[in-house]
Request: fold
Amino acid sequence: MKRDYIFFFCNGQPIWAKGLAVLQTLSAWLRKERQLTGTKVVCAEGDCGACTVLLGYPSSEKIKYEAVNSCILNVHQLDGLHVITIEGLAWGDRLHPVQQAMRDGFGSQCGFCTPGIVMALAANALVDSESTRKKLTAKEALIGNLCRCTGYEAIIDSAEASKKINSWKLADQYPPGAIVKQLKVETKIPFALQEVDPSLEQEIPRKCWRPRTLKDAIEIKRKHREARWLAGGTDLCVQINKERIDPKELIATSEISELCGIREEGNDLIFGGNVSWRELEEWAQLNWPIVKDMLDLFASPQIRNRGTIAGNLANASPVADSLPWLYVSEAEIGTCDGEKWRWIPIEKFYKGYKLLDLRKFELIGAIRIPKSHQSLSQRLFKVSKRRDLDISTFTAAIQWQIVEGRFQQIRLAYGGVGPTVIRLHKTEKVLLSKPCTKDLIEQAGKIAAAEISPISDVRSSNHYRNRLAETILKKFFYEEISVLA
Amino acid sequence: MSKSISGENAPSQFKYIGKPRGTIDAPEKLKGQALYTADLQLPSMLHLRPVLSPHAHARIVSIDKEAALAVPGVRAVLDASDLTHWRKKAASRVGALLARNEVMFQGHPVAVVVGETPQAAWDGASVVDVDYEELDVVADIQTALKSGAPLVWPNGIPRDESDVSGDHGAVEKGESDAASLPPNVHSMNSYTRGEVEEGFAEADVVLERNYRTGIVHQGYMEPQVCVASPDPMGIMTIYTSTQGPRTVHKDVSRLLDLPHTKVKVVPMVIGGGFGGKHGMLEPLAAAVALEMKAPVKLELTRTEDFMTSMPAPAAEVWLKMGVKQDGIICAIQARIDVDNGVFAAAWWSGLLAQLMTSGYRTPHLKIDCREVVTHKPMAGAYRAPTAQTASFAMESHMDELARSLKLDPLEFRLQNAAGSGDLMSNGNPWPSLGLKECLTTLKESELWQQRQTNENEGWGIAVGLWPCGVSPASAVCRMLPNGNVQVQVGSVDISGINSGFVQIVAEVLSIDPSKVEIIQVDSHAGPVAPPSGGSQVSYSLAGAISGATRNVKDQLAKLAAEHFEAAERDLVFEEGSVHVNGLPSKAISLAELASQAESRKGGAGPVIATSSNSIQENAPAVAVHAVKVVVDLETGKVSPKNYIAVQDVGFAINPMLIEGQVQGGVLQGLGWGLWEEMPYDAQGQLLASNFLDYAMPRADDSVFVDAVLVENPSPLGPLGIRGVGEPPIVPGGAAVANAVREVTGVRFEQLPIRPQALWKAMNS
Ligand SMILES: Cc1cc2nc3c(=O)[nH]c(=O)nc-3n(C[C@H](O)[C@H](O)[C@H](O)COP(=O)(O)OP(=O)(O)OC[C@H]3O[C@@H](n4cnc5c(N)ncnc54)[C@H](O)[C@@H]3O)c2cc1C
Ligand code: FES
Ligand code: FES
Reply:
């Protein structure tokens, strides 16, 4: 049995939507169909945050809200959720503390970035009560938002000032009990937009499914070979908006239960493909802090809230930020065709530029990492024009263990230097079991530079990357090893 | 013009003026209720999608519209020949509605698809099949000036937008009166004083360098957008995001041969302009609306905006200066080439020259300027246009000279700084100029005196100049029976100016600022006002507004005097009412006075006044910036740590708003210095057309600015104010370059200073 409509709440109001309307972006839907024009569209590709809204995920009797970019979110992705826009943030005449502080502190000039900025800061303000999430500084919370007028400082000061303003709880404004209950009732069975639209009595040109089990998902995929997997959509929706690619059939993975969550299995850690960077961040905060540091440099809060591990792996950018870490952690990729799982070492999984060992009816289900890596020392590097929300020119991960002054274990992986991320096996060999001296590192630096064969593009020339390959090793040595020695 | 607002009040006695106060439109903007152009939905409005040229220079062989017309919801596909109202040659970006026969830059609009929905227009545009024959591309200044270079305009550079007479649709022809000019040069200009060779002969140190800045985009958040709506009375109403509604009005009526009275431009809330929104899409939207006889919306995507709008020009400056051992400048010589893109504005290089070489006194001067054309989008204005390049070249030079002479860079500048009455490079004397005052303020400030540096850190300073504009302007003031004061203006608020006006009106009438409404009237009915550019609106308009308000106050005083049977001089205005001195309990509200005046037959009549104002002379502004940077020697990354911005603001109507302008301008200036450039390849292809590749500063790039406002009153401006919007963007790039020089020893002759470039320079 299928449900042919989606159901969600928007600013506290129940919404039923069906047909092709559910395939448009949330920003378009809000602006055109709801006349909620406070949500702005500036770039339509996740770079500027003007379109930021709060997305509420029900969990037991609560709703947990996160900032997301509505320009790269499909309406059907709201199924079972509560979206709050800038129009729904103030409570009647009462301004939200962030709004009050921005008014008094001249945090809004032309105002075009303002709704998105307010929503990003309001999301951060909500973090307070929850323990697993770390509250970001205002600067961190604003990485995904561009403002051309203010120079940000007035906004940052306003964010600070807003903390001192007493306010109501979002749960009072939008009591979660009733919302969660109705969401559950309405979305009991999975949604599918398929075959015919009864009102039009004709085949509709685009289809979309939201299966809840792996088996169902693969079954659909076998019937609809051209269907694309859709996880968070932070890559795919950018391609749809930007390159105007037009996947006629989408299978959304986010409700497939087998792909969710992080767990331990024997000596391994298993990260489900649906795990978002935000979830990983919360987990890493307690369990693998160095990974949390990597995530601090990853995209923006909005993107981290939606983007998933599986999407990142499948997109296979040679400068994807997670990959060097996964390479040195000797991760295995778990792919699944509905029945069988295959576990493939990551080095084998990537066979060339965007060339994956993924079969036609498989999806990426999980990542497996031996727990032993958690206790090793590790450093991750990212070099880009600016620090954040910027495509990397170069990424690197180093994992090591020193026993009695010698490298007992050493693993190096560089990204952005070739069609795939690479492990520097030769360099590792030179270092392994040797006493970690300055000379050895110098030597290893030369070998590392020779081991890579960088590509040249707009962002960075070969020479620069070659030298970085060497410099990064030295930097690592001086900042980590020499301190130890 | 009087200097103080009501004659008798000294600034310290002001209740509202001079005090920090939030902007009047903030609540609407913060709640998402402000209505921007793209938010408008008119009944039966059609949606336009432009088809942009992928080539920088090509002949249009054919345009196949069939597939697009077959898309459901597509109503029309129009090319240049379909725009029956547009019969002018194209000689500017705003006048280049659609390409005729040839595309002249990547992003040149070739056709427009008209759809019933945005999606239909998109789908249609993606299948319009244009067949091009590629032609030679002249992509940059160097190529354009090479001997034997292909000509951007073989038949002469178009100079004015006259009718495309009989040869409708033919390649546009320019006048060839410019036969004496080098190839691809639209115009040349030079300025001389004394004999530079003599000056150089006297110099102890002579320094020559070549500086270059690239194309930088204004980066306004709101992409260009407008709605054009023809009404049954034959009036073309244009709702648009513009800094210059009156400019747009003139352009639309001129380009489409519409009578002036048949056009009306409604300025909407504007999501940032910074010089980039003085008219571009409106004539095209209006032309299509005329063909379709329906309202149309034309809204660019971010990438289209990067490709087809009018960013700041690239410029090359060769600069030579001679200085005596004691630090006195004896000669300045320069050659300036500005890359105008496909059409030339004919005054960028002259402006650059003036801003670059007028700040310091010199007996000998020679500057040669050329406006170059290339196959790129026409260059436009970006906040203090050309001043960034001027400051970068001159201030880098000053820094280097101070080093060779072993002089303190600040003292060296002070020693040579021009003041009021000194000659600018064009030979005219400077009006009141606060350069020395600003330099001295920095020198004496605690912030500067107690500056510190750690390892890999260094300070750099630089001066930025901006002439600030002035134009005749007028305003209307009415006292309404509901107790509000309404002020009507023809200007557009892009930086909080309306909020400053509110403070002035509240002050004059002694009423609460919440009772003041500022109405931005459309271009047809509104009072005359300058466009919001050149930092001139407050300076030009504040006098008219206070004049009209004073007049209203006089009328109210007369009414109150009659009412109380008292002398006008005994009246006290307070909190929106008037009483006789000593009798506050017997006050009458201004609302009551206005109401009586409006309703009583044979009475005084409605309380309304207009005032015109025309200041003779502009009031230049000065910004002196000091920045401390830290350089990561391993990656070449430069991060600003501390920032001091000294600025002559004349008089601060609202210090909070000015500090906001300074803070925002500084980060844009750092954008010039460290991150931003639109790179084009030799084929004229833009290599950075989104926010990922075009790196605008983000929150973690920002730096807290210590703004020091110098109040050196302008002699003629109302309250002594000066323009404040543009100067803060000017010296940042130069100051950063000087700081990088201090830390690394590397003198950059190009902006921006990206990590990779700095790293290379440090390692070579
Ligand atoms: C502004 C912005 C900044 C970004 N910054 C970074 C950054 O700093 N570092 C970085 O590494 N990335 C960055 N990204 C890229 C992107 O966010 C990540 O790659 C993210 O992890 C993608 O996950 P997703 O769930 O959104 O993928 P989606 O967009 O849903 O999918 C991506 C691709 O994976 C396929 N796919 C999805 N799920 C599966 C599955 N289970 N099995 C097989 N194929 C599947 C899809 O069909 C699609 O081709 C950024 C993106 C944006 C828009
Ligand atoms: S519009 Fe820029 S992130 Fe959505
Ligand atoms: S206030 Fe204009 S972009 Fe932020």
Chain B has four domains: 11-33+471-613, 46-144+169-182, 218-308, 314-469+617-762. Residues 46-144+169-182 of chain B form a domain with the Aldehyde Oxidoreductase; domain 3 fold (CATH 3.90.1170.50). Residues 702 and 738 of chain B are 19 Å apart (CA to CA).
